Inverse folding.
């Protein structure tokens, strides 16, 4: 069969667009809790056999992240043994099961609408199942895109995965907003004392609204699981299992026949040994990957994304769900900044400038939160903080994780880095509500300024880390990573 002499952009774009659906589901699954968490909290507060306190709610809101840790830890093994494509099919099925199970956790075993302790555990099981799908997708989607993309546009294409994540979050913000409709949020503060009470006019939100929010994910999850069946396996995985001719065919469709042969030879040169020991290229290589992941979460962004309506409500804003949607639009706009500048400006400058912007925004929230007349300053600071993340740590961290490791350790190294990311995410997300509500004396705002002050300091440390330790990878092939780390 004669191979094409020039690569097909349409073919490349079509398979990348399918792969980034995994990123959309990643964003959808992690942000769906933002609209559902108050209804869910009110539902379980009515349980008679246990006390659903802040600690339980923090755990339940973040329980999917336990699955994310498991999924990301398994991603390297599955990507190596089953391939990137089959692993993503599994992820899509897990998303689908989780969406339906979270909507109806009573299925088969419990009485519908009766909150009990064992039902809470079952709900969290379904959320963990979805989290495993997120963990797999978060590691393998950028790996897949990075392995099929030409080196000169790899950063941009991997950045589209982050765009899809933020777009998924924006979609679910709109979905939650329209599901909620004219129904009001169920939890109010009693007489300004900070004690949560269930508004009797919000019964639909308590019994039904949160279910529709979780169930809505079944639509994109089913579509992803179906479409991923029609994309090819990555050339680098095919070479690793001895299917060189099939790899050459795919490379030719993407890059053209002449260039494909050279790329295939480069891949084979770094695949003489299929795998090497994790520390073959030194501990700094792994440390940089892990810390990129840790800082992406330690800066606190997901505490904002998961609890945005609650935060805007605590600021005294009249329509927190609408502001959450507005924040989603800001986020997606600034993600596009990264998509279109990552190959021009490079990875390091975007990370450093984004870290400093986040620090400014987080410290602005810490200084102004809770002060009468400064609500707009607080909201603006929060938007600066979020926007700065979206053109820097959001997409660029995934770009670097997908490309920074040598071929022979990429599967295992990516799995470790992404697992570290989800562990950090769980710690940040589950600790946010208790930390945000801390008081030194009753009624003070200690928890508010401490939380964002801490995030601001971490952002500054992240900027120094990138400046000192992270190598610039703009324009380098994946095979160049082997040479780069051998020189260290």
């Amino acid at each position: 069969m004669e191979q094409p002499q020039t690569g097909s952009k349409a073919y490349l774009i079509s398979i990348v667009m399918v792969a980034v659906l995994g990123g959309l589901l990643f964003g959808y699954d992690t942000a769906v809790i933002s609209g559902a968490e108050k209804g869910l909290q009110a539902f379980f507060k009515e349980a008679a056999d246990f006390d659903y306190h802040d600690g339980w709610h923090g755990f339940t809101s973040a329980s999917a992240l336990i699955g994310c840790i498991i999924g990301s830890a398994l991603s390297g093994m599955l990507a190596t043994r089953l391939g990137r494509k089959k692993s993503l099919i599994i992820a899509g099925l897990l998303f689908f099961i989780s969406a339906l199970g979270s909507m109806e956790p009573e299925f088969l075993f419990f009485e519908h609408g009766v909150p009990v302790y064992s039902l809470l555990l079952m709900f969290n099981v379904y959320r963990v199942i979805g989290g495993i799908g997120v963990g797999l997708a978060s590691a393998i989607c950028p790996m897949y895109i990075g392995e099929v993309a030409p080196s000169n546009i790899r950063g941009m294409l991997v950045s589209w995965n982050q765009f899809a994540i933020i777009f998924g979050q924006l979609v679910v913000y709109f979905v939650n907003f329209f599901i909620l409709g004219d129904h009001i949020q169920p939890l109010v503060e009693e007489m300004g004392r900070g004690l949560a009470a269930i508004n009797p006019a919000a019964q639909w939100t308590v019994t039904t609204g949160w279910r529709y929010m979780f169930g809505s994910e079944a639509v994109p999850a089913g579509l992803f699981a179906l479409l991923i069946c029609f994309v090819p396996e990555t050339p680098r995985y095919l070479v690793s299992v001895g299917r060189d001719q099939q790899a050459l065919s795919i490379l030719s469709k993407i890059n053209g026949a002449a260039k494909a042969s050279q790329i295939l030879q480069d891949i084979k040169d770094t695949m003489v040994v299929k795998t090497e020991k994790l520390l073959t290229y030194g501990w700094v290589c792994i440390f940089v990957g892990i810390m990129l992941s840790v800082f992406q979460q330690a800066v606190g962004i997901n505490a904002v994304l998961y609890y945005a309506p609650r935060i805007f409500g605590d600021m005294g804003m009249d329509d927190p769900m609408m502001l959450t949607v507005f924040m989603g639009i800001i986020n997606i706009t600034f993600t596009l900044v990264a998509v279109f500048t990552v190959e021009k400006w490079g990875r390091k400058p975007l990370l450093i400038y984004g870290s400093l912007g986040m620090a400014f925004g987080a410290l602005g929230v810490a200084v102004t939160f809770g002060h009468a007349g400064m609500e707009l300053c607080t909201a603006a600071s929060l938007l600066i903080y979020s926007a700065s993340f979206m053109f820097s740590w959001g997409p660029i961290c995934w770009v670097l994780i997908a490309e920074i490791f040598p071929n022979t350790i990429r599967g295992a190294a990516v799995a470790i880095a992404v697992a570290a990311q989800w562990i950090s995410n769980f710690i940040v997300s589950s600790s946010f509500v208790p930390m945000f509500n801390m008081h030194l004396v009753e009624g003070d705002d200690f928890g508010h300024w401490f939380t964002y002050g801490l995030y601001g300091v971490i952002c500054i440390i992240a900027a120094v880390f990138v400046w000192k330790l992270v190598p610039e990878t703009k324009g380098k092939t994946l095979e160049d990573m082997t040479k780069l780390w051998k020189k260290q």
